[in-house]
Amino acid sequence: MLYLYDTATQEVRPLAMRQPGHVSIYLCGPTVYGPPHLGHGRATLVYDILRRYLTWTGIQVRLVSNITDIDDKIIDRANKENRPWSEITHKCEKIWFEAMVALNVEKPTDIPRATDYVDQMVAMIGELILRDGAYVTSDGVYMSVTSVSDYGLLAHQKIEDMLAGGGDREVFGAGEKKHPADFALWKFTKPGEPAWPSPWGEGRPGWHTECVVMSLQLLGEGFDLHCGGADLRFPHHENERAQAAALGKRFANHWMHNGFVVDAEGEKMSKSLGNVANLIDLVQHYDPRSYRMLLLQTHYRSPVRVGQDNIDASVKAVTSIDGFFARLGELANASPPDEATLLAFRSAMDDDLDTPGATAVMFDAIRRANTAVDAGDNATAGALAHAAREMCTAFGLVVNAFAAVSDDIAQKASLIDEARASKDFATADSLRNELQAAGYVVETTKEGTRVRRG
Asked: pLDDT digit string (tens) for 63-98?
């Protein structure tokens, strides 16, 4: 049985299933106003690993992950660039999914877009008003947090200690709030902004309203797991939960939050490497599997630093796995997987998704399999290799056996290094894009650029 830390109860407890053998998960997805950063990549990969592991154990998973395609940040960018807001969301959503494909993230079961659920949001807000859980002001409709007896559960704070909510989003209409932590459910539209009709006036939904409606609409009350980055715990997730509670609905049964991507001093960040400004840069400049490997070797609740040294180490790690399976060949399928190894693997994964411990089990199996091959014990080597392959599958880690590349491809790899050495990054990127378009994986390390078939 899988045990996970629950942010609400602050304890590691079993992930209970509303329906035996089925897990329902809601993951807060991207707000599509710019390129995804490393933190977005971490959140998505953590829960992709969780989903793949659950599936590997035989559990059916329904993962709902939304697209926030109407939001203050989107409107701000549209106004600054004098572009239609929908043009920005369509382009950024396309970029998002291209990054997810590169990272081998399995597509969610459902991908609701906020703009497709505005009518349901209006209906929910109307019900909250009728229940005295919300009120209308001159600039919108606000949630009354004092109507929820345990408001602050996820933040582990008492309501009297709270200041104005909203996170890094605009604190909207603070002057007319009944309580500093009250938050906007509906924002009346300013001239030139997108608008939808409502009984209170044209406007758009608040960020916190979007996810609670989509999760309940698609997964129903009491769904199994709500997850996202630690920065969403409060106020976003708390405000989702508050709306459901005010409606008398049972919301998520379990809350899961991953840690931040941080810099060398431990501060939250979005970028770290000199040539990596966002997630797109990372998958273009390095083997995309390296980020998954780096995160596998860090517990999901811990902060993770993304730097040149550990990206290079992760590239080396996935390359060594490729080399191992290339060496073992058909031996990896000749014997049943080693049961003791898989038992140790599952024990680690079931202990609050201890991927560092599980990864150590995998690399130990690879080491022992190599030793067995050297000793001529092909049966043991095959069983351990088969177990290692199973673990890669559970991790979502694609194995690419090495194959020799032609001289002209190898020459282009050398030209990339020459261009980088002379700081001609435009030429280096052009060559890299050319190789990637031809189906090659291009890996940049301290030792130079390596190319292999994808």
From this structure: 999 999 999 999 999 999 999 999 999 999 999 999
User: Would you call 447 exposed, middle or buried from its count of C-beta atoms within 10 A (0-12, 13-18, 19+)?
Assistant: exposed
CA distances from 238 to 73, 93, 156, 298 (A): 21, 26, 10, 26
Domain extents in the chain = 3-258, 291-395, 407-453
Say if pTM beats, i.e. exceeds, 0.70.
Answer: yes
Helices (H) then strands (E): counts for the chain = 15, 14
**The CATH number, out of the four listed (1.20.120.640, 3.30.465.10, 3.40.1620.10, 1.10.1740.10), of the domain defined by the range 291-395:** 1.20.120.640
The CATH number of the domain covering residues in 3-258:
3.40.50.620
Percent of the chain with pLDDT over 90: 72
Q: What is the per-residue pLDDT across 350-373, written as a single tens digit (0 to 9) for each?
A: 999 999 999 999 999 999 999 999
Could you tell me which residues come within 8 angstroms of residue 332 by beta carbon, excluding any fewer than 6 positions away? Answer: 325, 382, 385, 386, 388, 389
R_g (Cα) of the chain, nearest Å? 24
